[in-house]
Amino acid sequence: MPFGSDDLVDDIMRTAPHTIRVFLAFRMACVGCPIATFHTVDDACREHGIDREKFLAALLDCVPA
Q1: 30-39: per-residue pLDDT in tens?
Q2: Mind telling me which InterPro entries this protein's record contains (predicted)?
Q3: What local confidence, expressed as pLDDT, does residue 1 receive?
């Protein structure tokens, strides 16, 4: 299941709950945030000052084989 920078944060966490640990590891306060239903990965990374490519790579790394 690939993730992209245009995917909504809430959609990712709902469809792949194992990704929540990645959001927490990057100290992103997206878990439980009402804005997560509107923010894309790109929006969230920009808002939190996170390198988008590193974050997306971490999301992909946590996908079970």
Answers
A1: 998 999 999 9
A2: CHP03980_redox-disulphide, DUF1858, ScdA-like_N_sf
A3: 56
Would residue 4 count as lying in a domain? no
> Within 13 A of 45's CA, how many CA atoms are on the CB side?
19
Q: Note whether residue 38 is domain-resident.
A: yes
Select from 6, 35, 3, 38 the least CA-distant residue to 19. Answer: 3
- Taking the C-alpha atoms of residue 62 and residue 33, their distance in angstroms, rounded to an integer, is 22
Residue 57 domain-assigned (yes or no): yes
Model's pTM, two decimal places?
0.88
What are the DSSP calls for 16-44, one per residue? Answer: -GGGHHHHHHTT-TTTT-GGGGT-BHHHH
**Beta-ladder partners of 59:** none
Domain that includes residue 24, residue range: 9-62
